[in-house]
Structure formats: structure tokens, C-alpha cells
Amino acid sequence: MVMKRLLLAAAFLGAISASVMAIELPPDIVKRGSLKVALVPNYPPMEFRDPATNALSGFDIDLGEAIGRKLGVKIEWTETSFAEFMPSISTGRVDAILSGFTDYASRHEIASFVDYLRSGPKFFVQQSRASEFKDMAALCGKKVGASRRTMFPAEIDKWSQKNCGSNPVQFVGTDGSADARNQLRQGRIDAAVQGNETLPYLMDLEPGTYAPVGDPFATQFTGIALPVKEKALQQAMLEAVDALIADGTYKTLLTKWKLSDNAIEKATINAGQ
């Protein structure tokens, strides 16, 4: 009986060890025992600081910690600025970026992306003016704001050229998504653009304030940015995300943060265009 218990215990420990050790990390990360991950915590529900505790919170935080457990390493979150994302990867200051970062082909020279979420830009207006924007065509000729630090300006221009003809959207660049919403509330712009992964959360935070217009007008992927040359780390991240999809953790986190509509079936590398 004792021997049977010992064998069961050994099998159990072996299974735990295999679940952590089966994914191979680069030797320097294994030796360090941690992954340095950059973020900008101002993009709820992806990442933000809890107003009550000031602790990091959000889908990306939960996902990152779950990845760390799969890989058997600690996640060292490093706050930076959006402008420093790519330099921090290229200089090796961080191992990864996990911060609602969109996978674009234009970024592939410096970073490779393990894609874990499907997203897309979406127009929204003040709820009080929703009747003026019954469809997306009503946005033609209007002032539309979005963060100038994203690819949203290019996507808005592409949509406008395709749909508005001689009455194009008047784009207004903003200093981030919060500034876009502020200008919308002040009436300085007619509409704004936000990733459809964040808009439902913001509408819950400010009920009766915003109304979406139409569907996402482009398809994008959100990914974990990693150094181009770190193929082993890219493969490890890919396998870790797939393992979280397989064991149900990914679905649980999506449900928690109201992101189920943004789910992917399998992680990919550099699927962004």
C-alpha cells in the first residue's frame, strides 16, 4: 500500500514537472528564472492599475502570469512608454512586450509576434448623438479622433478612401485613447476609434456615455512581441499560449474580462498584416 502511494506521488510530481519543463526556454532565461516583460498600464481591460489598490490588473496581466506558470519562471513587469516598446526589444532591455500591442508587418523587422487575440478598430460616438450615426456612412465628412501613436490613422484613411469618396473623414490625431474620449465628450470631434477589445469594457465603466457605430472596419491581431532572433523564446511562448488554450485557462480569462468575441483557436506567429 505504501509503495502504491509512493508510485502515485511520483507520477503526480512527474506530471507537474513535465507540464512546466516540457517547454524549453533559452538558457539565460532559465538561469535568471524570470522574464522581463514591458507594458504601459493605461489600456483597460488589457492592462491598467486598479484604482483601489494601484496593483497591475487586466487580461494581459492575468495571461502573462499564467504564461509564467506554464514556463516555470517569474514575470518581471517593467513599465515603460509606448515609444520605448521597440527600442526596449531591440536593445535587450526586456525579453517581451505584453501590452495590447498590435501585430503589424511593419514591426516584424525588429520584433516577432506570438498572436493571442483577434481585434479590430471600431468607431464610436456620444450616446446623445447616436441617432445621427445610424450607419458607418454617416461618419464621412466628420471629425474622427484616434491615437496618433497607433495604426488607427492609417486604417481610418483606408476606410475613408474606400467608402467616402469626395467627402472624406477628417482625421484628428490624439495623445492616446483617453484623450480621444475626452475630446469626444467635449464635442471637439464627432467620433472616435478604439480597439473593439477595449470598447465594451469602457462602455461598462461609463454607462450611457458612448455608442458603437457599425462593426470593426479592419481585422488585427494582438501579440506578444519578442526579439526577432530569439526563435527558442518565440516557440516557448507559442507553446505556452496553446497550452493555456487547451487547458481552458485562456477561455476563463477571456470570460473574466469580457473578451470572448476576440478569442483565437490557436496561437500564431506574425499573422499581422
TrEMBL record:
Q: Where is the Solute-binding protein family 3/N-terminal domain?
A: 34-261
Keyword Signal in the entry? The reply is yes
Q: Which Pfam families match?
A: SBP_bac_3
Give the range the annotation lists for the signal sequence. Answer: 1-22
Under CDD domains, the record lists: PBP2_MidA_like
Q: Which SUPFAM superfamilies match?
A: Periplasmic binding protein-like II (SSF53850)
Residue ranges of coiled coil = none
Record keyword RNA-binding present: no
InterPro entries membership: Solute-binding_3/MltF_N
Show the stretches that span the lipid bilayer.
Answer: none
Q: Which domain of life is it from?
A: Bacteria
Identify the keywords attached in UniProt to this record, alphabetized.
Answer: Signal
What PANTHER family does the entry give?
ARGININE-BINDING EXTRACELLULAR PROTEIN ARTP, MEMBRANE-BOUND LYTIC MUREIN TRANSGLYCOSYLASE F
Q: Provide the protein name.
A: ABC transporter substrate-binding protein
